[in-house]
Amino acid sequence: MDNSKLKEQVKNEFTDYLNLHKHRKTPERYAILDHIYSTKGHFDMDSLYNVMKESTFRVSRATLYNTIELLLDCGLVVKHQFGANVSQYERAYGNENHDHMICLNCGEVKEHKNGNLFTPAQQKKLQRFKISYYSMYIYGTCSKCLRAKKAEEKKSNKITDNKNTRTKKK
């Protein structure tokens, strides 16, 4: 689905949700929704606030937090807690199912597109269950942190070897 059709679909769903729950349909709420569905990837509330502050629709933090709660409730945004204190969010529609690889050392989060996670037998069981989306969290150490750790160990071993060599010469 192209992005303009996707944005129109989520706007309609959000409007239906707002009508159903008797919430106001404000330009700021639609601007927040539009921004979220104009960009891919994760975002936190501070980065979203800073982007919105620079846009034509300046929104308060309260409006931003209230709108995110509405978007979470109607299923248009997904909230992640990757182990850090800061919650991350991403759009729920238009994302392929993917894994999140989280480095326990530096906290970096990378997405990895995956094929079908379920075996044919599991798929058969899931026929009576409508999956909206799924996400898998994989915790470990990224290659950058592994290289840094190896370099630190190598440096530490050199220092130890040099100390041992000096001690033997005495």
Descriptive notes:
The chain is flat, with a radius of gyration of 23 Å. The model has no long low-confidence stretch (mean pLDDT 83). Strands 4-3-5 form a three-stranded mixed β-sheet, with no helix packed on it. Strands 1-2 form a two-stranded antiparallel sheet. The protein contains six helices and five strands, in the order H-H-H-H-E-E-E-E-H-E-H. The protein has 170 residues and is an alpha+beta fold. It has helices at residues 3-20, 27-38, 45-54, 61-73, 120-125, 143-169; strands spanning 77-80, 88-91, 98-103, 109-113, 135-140.
Brief sketch in words of this structure:
With 170 residues, the protein is α+β, with helices and mostly antiparallel strands. The chain contains 6 helices and 5 strands, in the order H-H-H-H-E-E-E-E-H-E-H.
The tally of helices reads: 6
Largest sheet: 3 strands, mixed
Strands, total number: 5
Shape summary: flat
Q: Provide the succession of SSEs.
A: HHHHEEEEHEH
Please indicate the percent range of residues in DSSP E strands (runs of 2 or more). 5-15%
Alpha-carbon distance between the two ends: 75 Å
Order of strands across the main sheet: 4-3-5
Q: What is the residue-mean pLDDT, rounded to a whole number? A: 83
* Helix vs. strand class: alpha+beta
As a whole number of angstroms, the C-alpha radius of gyration is 23 Å
Bin the helical content: 40-55%
Give unreliable regions as ranges: none
